[in-house]
Structures are given as C-alpha cells and as structure tokens.
Amino acid sequence: MGFVIRRNTKIPAKASRSCTDSGHTSAIFEIYEGERTDVRKNRYLGDLCVDGLTPAPPRQRMLTFTLNIDNNGILTATAEEKISNIIKEVKVNYTRGDRSEFEIKNSLLDAVENRKMDEKLEKFIKIKEKVYVYLESFLYNLDKKNLSEKYQSIQLFCQEIMNDLWDMEVDQKNRLKDLYVEAKIKCNAIAERHHFDYVPELDI
C-alpha cells in the first residue's frame, strides 16, 4: 500500500508511483481514499485490473500507476507496463466534495489518534513484504531450475508461509520473525548451492 495523491493537494492534480510486481501476466491496483496505513480503515473507491503483462521473473518488471483528478473532481486511474507498452485506464465515480465536513474531520481525527499504530503497521508490512519477495523469488528459481521435486518439502514450507503472511497482524510480529529465521536457514544454502537468480538478501 502506498499514498499517491496526498490530502489538501490542489486540483487538477496528477501523481504516479512505480513498483515491481510478482511477474504474473495480470495485476490489480485497488484504490482507496483515506489517511490510514491499514486500507481496511479507508474508503474503497474501485480497482484497476491490468491483463496481458509481459511474463518476467519476480520483481524484474516495472509498473507505473497514475492517479489524475481533473477540475471537475473526476478521478482517473492509469496503469502502464513499458516493456510491451500496455496501458489500462479506469475512471472512478468519485467527487471530492461528496463527503460531509463531519466525515472528513472524523477521518482526520482517526488518523491522528492512531498515528503510532499506523507507524508500527507500516514497519510490520515492510517486513512481511521482504519475506514474501524472498520466498517468491526462491520458488521461481526452484521451478525454473527444475528443482521443485527435489526440494518438495521446502517448496511446501515456502508456499504455506506465503499463504499465511498477508493475514498476519502486528501482534504476530514475533511469529513473523521466527518464520523469517526458519526460512533463511532452510532456503539460503539451497539458493547459494544452485546459484539462484533475483533472490534478494533476507535481512530484517
């Protein structure tokens, strides 16, 4: 999750964020309005699905996501992948003035009161992302080098962790660190032995 257009930005406004992804042939960008790091606390506006992306190793393909708000307050989301020049666009039925002053003030107060909690959550999410990206790249190499059968138990271990990661909450930080240590012990030696590509350092 990342903020694209910040509160109090004058319109018309346009801002972009670039990110790497899992290398699959499709990607979904969800769009929210709000101040909280936890998107579940924000207001869902819509999503943009991009299909037909160029297959690539994990985190080796760049996508650019752009939000544009025109003078009428109409929000347009655009996603672009430069390798194959794929551009997808969606207009979101949204007007900046459709929330009451009471709703806006409550939203801002909620963000201020929960700032420390959101800071902790942001750090926790970054750790989860590091572990996920590491395991994702590790599994990609197992498949690419035809090692999945040889290391089937490790493969299942990695898949189970990846499935569990996104449901983990901040109060499970110690469990996440334990999984990180276990993953590092089980996977690093294999990655080095078989000269895996695109596997980042797993250091949290």
Structure write-up:
With 204 residues, the chain is α+β, with helices and mostly antiparallel strands. The protein has 2 domains: 13-113, Substrate Binding Domain Of DNAk, Chain A, domain 1 (Sandwich), CATH 2.60.34.10; 116-193. Helix content is 38%, strand content 23%. It contains 4 helices and 6 strands; from the N terminus they run ββββββαααα. It has helices spanning 101-113, 115-144, 152-165, 173-193, and strands at 13-20, 26-33, 43-51, 62-69, 75-81, 86-92. The strands form 2 sheets. Strands 1-4-5-6 form a 4-stranded antiparallel β-sheet, with no helix packed on it. The protein has a two-stranded antiparallel sheet with strand order 2-3. It is flat and about 60 Å long. The mean pLDDT is 85. Belongs to the heat shock protein 70 family. Keywords: ATP-binding, Nucleotide-binding. This is Heat shock protein 70. One of its GO terms (molecular function) is ATP-dependent protein folding chaperone.
Briefly summarize what is shown.
By secondary structure, this protein is of the alpha+beta class.
Characteristic terms for this protein:
204 residues, alpha+beta, Substrate Binding Domain Of DNAk, Chain A, domain 1, flat
CATH architecture of the largest domain: Sandwich
Helix percent band: 25-40%
pLDDT under 50 segments (min length 5)?
none
The CATH superfamily of the largest domain bears the name: Substrate Binding Domain Of DNAk, Chain A, domain 1
The whole-angstrom Rg is 20 Å
How would you write the strand order of the largest sheet? 1-4-5-6
**Biggest sheet, open or closed, and with what strands and sense?**
4 strands, antiparallel
What is the CATH class name of the largest domain?
Mainly Beta
> Based on DSSP secondary structure assignment, what is the total number of beta strands?
6
Overall shape: it is flat
Strand content: 15-25%
Name the quaternary structure.
Answer: single chain
Please indicate the count of domains: 2
**Whole-Å distance between the termini?**
19 Å
Counting DSSP H or I runs of 4 or more residues, the number of helices is 4
